[in-house]
Every structure is written in C-alpha cells, then in structure tokens.
Fold each of these.
Amino acid sequence: MAHSSLSTVLLLCLAMAASAQLSPTFYQTSCPNALSTIKAAVTAAVNKENRMGASLLRLHFHDCFVQGCDASVLLSSMEQNAFPNVMSLRGFEVIDSIKAKLETMCKQTVSCADILTVAARDSVVALGGPSWTVPLGRRDSTNANEAAANSDLPPPFFDLVNLTQSFGDKGFTVTDMVALSGAHTIGQA
Ligand code: HEM
Ligand SMILES: *[C@@H]1O[C@H](CO)[C@@H](O)[C@H](O)[C@H]1NC(C)=O
C-alpha cells in the first residue's frame, strides 16, 4: 500500500517534470493581463480585416517549422527573406503592436514566441473556429536561419511524397499534416 502510493507520487512527479517547461498559467502572476491583452488586440485586428486572422495563423506555422516556435520568423532579413516567406507573410505589425503593449504592462516578461502562439489561437476563435488551451513559457531565439527556412518550409510545388517527408521530419503523421492543412479553409492564396 505505502509502496504503491509512493510509486504513484513518483510517477506524478515525473509526469510533472516532463511538462514543467510550458504551462497555461505561466504568466498568471508575472503578467496577469497578458492573455486578455493579446485577445483584445487580435480580435480588433480580425474585425478590421478578416484575412488578418489567417495571416497570424500562418505566421505561427512558419515560425514553428523553422527551429521551433521561437519567434525567429520575426527577425528581419533572415527567415523573412526565405522563399516561402518573402512578400507573402503578413501580420508582423499586429505582433509588434501587441509586444509594445505588453512591454509597457510587464517589461521583458512575455515572449514573442508565446504572443505568436496565442495570437494564432485567438485568430481562429475570432473567425468562428474552435478554441484550445495554449501552454506558455516559450523562449525567443536570438538568431534566425534563412537557410533552414528555405529547406524546412514546404514550398507550394511539393507533391504528397515531399510533403509527407517534410512534416515527418518534424514529427508529424500524415493525419496531422492533413488536419493542419485545414488551415487553408481561411485566408487568401
Ligand atoms: C502543407 C504544406 C503547406 C504549404 C505548401 C503551404 C503553402 C501556402 C501558400 C503557397 C499559401 C499562399 C501564400 C500567398 O499567396 O501569399 C498559403 C497560405 C496560407 N497557409 Fe499554408 N501551406 C502549408 C501548410 C500550412 C499550415 C500547416 C498552416 C497552418 C496550420 C497554413 C496556414 C496558411 C494560411 C492561414 C494561409 C493564408 C494566409 C493569408 O491569407 O495571409 N499552411 N500556404
Ligand atoms: C520530392 O519527391 C520526389 C518523389 O515524388 C523526389 O524524387 C524528390 O527528391 C523530392 N524532393 C524533395 C525536395 O524532397
């Protein structure tokens, strides 16, 4: 009995350690209004122009597919110049303005990587889609990688074999890929 409850406690600790890095309540004490501030700004931007919701979702995808969700997509003239990004990524000014607001509220607390992630979720919600809980605490990269953006982001001419390989390299199944591609039901192409 004592032994089995100790095992249970140990297992719980291990499970917590495994997910300790990111938490939906990461900013609850350090910046309690962070999430409502992002939501208000995203909702306003989407109300002003519907397509912005799609653009913010795509920005998050292009951030995460190159060296992880680290806001490296925001570092100008590096990843932004990569072929799948140049002249087609939008929404930077929305993220910039949210970051500026959060800096005045809670200096150097909320990462751009988290802002991008939450903005993608809030965009989908603002456009009438489902909601989901976003674990927080991502760190921002200090470098971007144009070469990795060119090699990791799938270009529009990829066939199914290429796409399956590209998403597989990031740990996604074909089912994941098809589900994520549902993002193309919004926005402009
Ligand atoms: C499967 C591989 C993918 C390819 C080859 C691809 C390619 C493209 C291309 C070529 C565009 C049009 C860009 C333009 O006309 O300026 C586009 C738009 C878009 N993509 Fe993808 N994409 C892929 C996956 C994804 C994923 C996984 C997401 C998000 C979960 C996503 C979200 C979007 C959105 C929302 C738009 C519209 C953006 C806007 O209107 O500003 N895409 N994509
Ligand atoms: C794309 O897939 C084809 C087979 O359909 C393969 O020959 C080619 O090397 C792949 N290209 C890339 C860039 O993965």
Amino acid sequence: MTRPAADVLAELTALREADPPTHGGRVLSYVYDHGRPELDRLAEQAATAFLPVNGLDPTTFRSVAVLERALVARARTLFHGDDDVVGSVTSGGTESCLLAVKTARDVWRAADPARAHSRATLVLPTTAHPAFHKAAAYLDLDVVAVPVDVASGRASAADLLAALDAAGPRAALVVVSAPSYPFGVVDPVAEVAAGAAARGVACHVDACIGGFVLPWWGDVEPWDLAVPGVTSLSADLHKYGYAPKGVSLVLHRGRDRHRAQYFATTAWPGYPVVNPTVLGSRAAGAMAAAWAVGESLGDDGYADLVARTRAATATVRAAVDACPGMRVVGEPTGPLLAVADDGGVDPFHLVDALRRRGWLAQSQPAMTQPDGTTLPRTAHLTLTAVTDDVVDALAADLVRSADEVRGVTPAAVDPSLVERVLTHGLPDELAGVMATLEALPADVVVPALVGVLQAAIDPGPSA
Ligand SMILES: *Cc1c(COP(=O)(O)O)cnc(C)c1O
C-alpha cells in the first residue's frame, strides 16, 4: 500500500506546477518575492531545521524563545518602541490583529468590574482589514465602521474620534492602517492616537502589510510606536519581511497589556497551559526562516529591496497616470496601488485583460459606506522588489490591457451566476462574477461565497 517517496513528491510537484507562479512578479497579491534565490534557500533551510520543534513550550524548546525574543527586539527597534514595548510572534496578520483586539477588550474589561460581561466597541475606518471584523465576531465586540474620504481613501481622524465619543465608555479600541490594504494609504496615525489617548482608548496601528516597507520608504509621516498613544502594532514578517507564510508580530506598549493577550489555565489534569497566542502547538519553521532572512538581509538588505520596490511602484503609477480612462486612488504611501475607472476603463475588465497576459491583479468591488458615499471599484496591485525586474513589461501590459477594455461596458449583473458558480465553479473571466457580487446584498453574497469555498475542499461522496 505504501507509495514510493519519489512518486508522492512527483504528485506534489505536479500540483504546484498548476498553481500561478509564486516567483517572478506575475502574481500581484498574496505572494512577496524579493527575487533572490539564495535567500529562498536560506529560508528553506532555516524552516527545515525548525520543523520538528514545538513553539508551544519555550521552556522546553528554548531555541524558540531565543528566536522569538530576537524578532520582538528587532521589531521594537525598527518601529521605535522603547524598553516598555514587548510582544509576540504569531502565525499571521489575522492572528496579530485578533490578539490586539483581545488585549484591548480584556484591558477595557479589567478597568471596571461592571464591564466584566459587557460588549466593548471597536472603531475602525471602512478600509481596515477584515481581520478586525473577524476578531469582533469571534470575541463579541460591536464594530463601528467609519467612512473614509472617497477621493483619497484615507480615514478621517475627526470622524474616528467622533465615533469614539459616540461609543462613550464602551469604546475599547480604535484601529488605523499603515497603510490600508485596499488603497495603500497611510491613515492619520498621530492625530487618531493622540485623540484616543486623551479619551483613555487604546489605538492599534495595523502595519501588517507596511511594517517591513515603510521604515525604508522615505517621506512617511509618523506611523509607528514613536507616536504617543499608539498602544499596539501588527506587522507581518510573511509579507515584506520576505519570510515564508505563517509568521507575523504583534507588539504592545506595556507589559501589562501584553499580559492581557495571554491565556493560562490549570483547570485540567494535564500540564499547566500558558498560551500567548491563539494556537496551542506552534510551528516554528516560519519563525526561524523570518529570523534568518532578517539576519541575512540586515538593514541594508531591506533598504535595497524597498528602494527597488519603490522604483517599480513609481513606474507603474506613472503608467497608470499617463493612460487615459484610469487613475490611481488617492496618494498611496508604499507599494500598493488601487486603479479605478476614470472615464472608460472598467477595473474588473482590466483585471481579466491582465490575466490573459499572465498577470494576476485583484478585483476590489465598490463599497457603499455607512454615510451613503461609495468607494470605487478598483483593480489592486501589490508590487514587490521583483516587480522591478519585470516592471517595463507590466507597465506596457497595463496600458495594452486598458486600451483593450477602454469603452467596453462593465459586465452586467447576473444573479443566476451565483447558482452557476456554485455548481460549475468559477469561470476564468471574473468580471461578471465580481459585478454580481458587488451588486447583490451581503445576505446573498456571503453564503454564496462560503458555498463556493466550501465546495472547493469538499471531498464529495466517498468512493
Ligand atoms: C495581510 C493583512 C492583514 C492580515 O494578514 P494575514 O497575514 O493575511 O492574516 C491585516 N491587515 C492588513 C493591512 C493586511 O494587508
């Protein structure tokens, strides 16, 4: 019954060959490529060395404690935290954000015994990452989503602070992004953090995507732990930290806050449980790889990768600016661009046209905000250091794709598509599906999306 290893590995290789290329800059979201094969080898070897250990217990596997401490220390310096800043390595940005929310909720509850069983309120801009909505859903907080400026995509400090005032004593946390994923724009961190501090409310900076770019980007207004009033910060090592997937950081100002992140219990007949993060058993491979990549790159290495990323971003931006019918939303700080229709280039058609040329951009549906204003439909591009190697081809194909779809009527909304996608899977051309998702109400779209993804991993009837 056993299969030869070579046979098993060949099957895995074949599966991977059918995936989009994770290297080479063709996939403009999800993957982060530095373009240096020797750094990939280092990450692989570091991860392999740590595959067998369990980060659950850093008193047994002291190697994990050493690496975690080193990563936190490095990040604390990078993000201008003082000796009062501590934190944890997590499995990813979602977990870092979830733990920031859990910490804020528990600190809020501990401040007043009457709050022990009350719901706290989480205030965020509409552009905040859904990880915060997920955290609120898991941890029973109310969310107040505050509209951002439609033209710039940037959160308004005054509006966020007004929302804190409206929430009154229930306000436990306000979130700002550095930068936001949808539009790549850095929110007014200093103003929000100062206002939050004055109200006794915690302030989280979500630098999941920007944390390992902004320190070397240049021309960025203060956004990190140097800003008074910022109580926590998340930064993903598995994005521009160029580590393999499964590693992020959450930092807190104050050991008391960090302690509120922990879960500990002796209420079972087994070993005493002390978990800093959501997971029990913790993989340490990605953590070791993150540490190794950081040691190898050093400050100069990151600076060099960011310089290339910035140059590539400027080239792509210039191509969009020069091309009639489309525009970049706002003034992004960092390597994320959202391209909106500006007289004839439908972003969903643009994404399909780019895909036909071998580039995977991401469709972002329009969103009506709570105040009735609408954030535009866009095509999202995440650019990395390796983009620099292919940037002329990307810029040229963006223009060719725009030329091809300029004036083409946006895809029609077709509710019957929902059923067809559920039974036949997703088509290659996604413009119609995206237009339909955008138009239908959430109570139709959300179960349909879950259905599609559930079907993707359903083994079906047993043979
Ligand atoms: C990626 C991202 C997250 C969540 O990170 P995951 O690693 O995908 O779980 C949170 N916030 C922002 C701004 C992000 O870009």
Amino acid sequence: MTDVRALLQRTADLAADFLDSLEERPVFPQVSVDELHAALNVPLQDAPMDPAHVVEELAAAAEPGLVAMPSGRYFGFVIGGGLPAALAADWLTSTWDQNAGLYVGGPSASVVEQVVREWLCDLLGLPADASIGFVTGTQMGSVTALAAARFRVLERAGWDVGRDGLAGGPRVRVLVGEQRHVTVDRALRLLGLGAPETVAADAQGRLDAGALRDALAAGNGPTIVCAQAGEVNTGAFDPFEEIAAAAAEHGAWLHVDGAFGLWAAASPKLRGLVRGVELADSWITDAHKWLNVPYDSAIVLCKDTEAHRAAMTVSASYLIQDDARLVRDQVDWVPEFSRRARGFAVYAALRSLGRSGLAELVERTCDCARRFAGGIVALPGVELLNDVVLNQVLFRFESDEQTDNALRAVQDAGDVWMSGTTWAGRRAIRVSVSNWQTRDEEIDLALDSFRAAVQAPAQAPAR
Ligand SMILES: *Cc1c(COP(=O)(O)O)cnc(C)c1O
C-alpha cells in the first residue's frame, strides 16, 4: 500500500518549490522541444511503478519545459495565475473527485455552484435570477450561450431546433463586430450557424452601433448579435446600451463575450465601462483569467433560463422543474456530462478576495497597465495603439521588424514575457496585466527589459 499522505505531502513540496521558483526563473523556458521529448519519452514499462517515484520523475522531467505562467512577470495573451485559496480548493476538487454532472454525483458541488451564481449576479450587476453553467473556458461558454440563443430565436420563428434540427428551418442571422474573438466563430461553426456577418468596428475594436443598426435593418428573421466586453488586444468595450436597444428593436438575442472585461463590473471605479451590459441575454466570462482561478474554469450566464436549459438539458423536458433551484443537476446547464466540480475553486477565489479584494485586483492591474503605457511611450519610436481603459496595452515600434526584434529580445531575456499580435495590418506587442501578483515592481522590470532591448543591437533569432 502506498502511503498516500506521504505522497501528497511530497507533492505539496514539489508544488511549493515550483511556486518559489517563480521569483527567479526565466518566464519562458530555455529548452528545446527535442530535449523535452528526450526527458519525457521513456519507454512505457510493463510493471506498475511506485506512485511516489512516478510523481518525482514527472516533476523532474516536466520542470525544464514549464512556463512561469502563474508569475506576476507573465504578461502574455490574457492569462492570470492561481490565487492561493483557489489553487488549494482546486487540489481538494481533484481529491474529492466528485462527478459534478448530477446532484447525486456530489451534492456540495451542485450547491456551491448555486451560491457562486448568486454572488456573481450581484458582483457583476447582472439579473439576479440569471442561470449559470460552469464550463472549461469562454470558448465553451459561447457554445452554451449561443445554443440557448439559437433555440430561442428559432422558437420565436416557430421552429423547434431541438426536435427538427437546422435543416429546412429559417436561417439564423448572426451579427458580430469585426474584432470579436475567434472563439465566437468556432462556437457558431459547431452550432451549425456558419460564418457570421461582420459589422464595422472602430480603431479600438469597438463594434459600431450605427453600423449594427443598419445591418439589422437590412435583414430580418431570427437574429443573434454578439458583443464584447474587453477586446483581446485593446481591452475596449462595445457600447452595450446602444447595441442592446438596437437588438431589442429587432427581437435579436444579445450575447456578450466578457472573457476578462466583464470583471470591470466588480469595481466601482470601472463599472461605467460595462454600462448597459446587464441588458444582454447571455454573458460569458473566464474565471481562469482575471479572477486567477487555475485552469480550466469559466462561467456562462443566461437571462432566459428556459432557453439555457432547453439547449443543454439531457432530459426531453423544456420545463424547469419546481425544485430545480434547490436540487440542481449541472448536466442541464452545460454541454458536458461527467465533469469536474469547477464551482469549488471559484467559490474559494471569491471568498478569499472578498468584494473589496476583487475590486482591488481589477483596479491595481489596470493601474499597472497605465504605468506600463506611460513608461513605454517614453522609448524612442514607440507608438501606443490603444486607449488604456483596462488591463491591456498595445504598442509598436516604427517598423514591423523593430517591433518583432524588440519583442524577441525581451522574451529571450526571460525577465518578463508578453505576446505579439497584428493590429491594423502592422505587427504589435500586447501586454496584459492579469495576474494577482503583478505590482509596480514587475511593470518596471518589463519597462527595463524593453529599454535594454532597444539599446542592444538587434540579435539574430535565437530559434
Ligand atoms: C480568452 C478569450 C476567449 C476564449 O476564452 P477561453 O477561456 O480561452 O476559452 C474569448 N474571448 C475573449 C475576449 C478572450 O479574451
């Protein structure tokens, strides 16, 4: 018999060692893919192996290829780390190993989701009786919400998509901003809705409400509009009040991708950015980004609880049972059947932060983004490309080559890491401040790294 307690205690030490290493290690690992293959690709032996030995070897072999993603020096994509309480709750979630599809698969896992639902509707200023689903990411959040939208807009047109499918039914129009996230397109594809019609966006990536009105007026039939809270490069917010009014006039379902930006609603200072967002029909947001819950964790919320359930339920009934609010089977609200009890880590994150801690996290990271923007524009040839309204900074140097060279030099130096993008046809660098540990110190380190990069002569690509 393995001593499980000893194994878990040793594993906790390995985990803590990794967290301790975040202070110092290069943010992106300096290892080749061949080296990683060599380390991990051992022949699968025939006999069982001692678990302690397995874990020890796994940790040692994986270590050189780990990104310091949970560190405050990581500014790539839109990522976030793991709040200690959320990380610990996530460990317990694995240990408890509840099947959170059904209430009987883990009553506490079911109830904790309902509690988080209430907290989130309140924190984010959304309708108090919106329904919730806990999914892997905003990608699947969009699939869930847009399935609900598809059900409802077709039902209003006299078509039962659950029974009759899409073939032969009315065509569903889907209108999206030019700068919607790519996951919206994939969600639509998975749902058989095809490619969306795009509506013009402004220089910050905000959907143009006037263009949306024109597009809505130019067609008819069942319609879905997708808006965005937090453009992935600029952090910009669509004008929800105007969009919601236009959508309502045309009986369209309004879906909001708020993967990170929706959390602005939790800050009294920033809440104005999401004005009108509560008028939408569905919302999605990640817990694994700005809330700093470990992967994978996201939330979908629907005002039209009946459509939400109709689109996702595994029972034939479209009716919410009387007791659905008390005894809730999660399978009825998400696309998965067996699933991880994602509610525990979100619950722990929210409790450990509290209302003021959540607002502080959101505001501080936005302050950090502004500090970075203020510093980076002082470098020669830097052009700031976005209004820094949130936690995202987008900038470039004079030429695409200079931009890519500076980014590569900073990435290779290893003190910080951020990713590149193409914005308005030109190469750009994007900084996302989403980690709970990032403070002025890490921002100044990033600025120093860019200063050093532009002073050093351009290096040949490392790889
Ligand atoms: C990250 C992101 C997504 C996708 O979210 P996942 O959690 O990776 O599935 C969608 N929309 C926006 C705006 C994002 O930033």
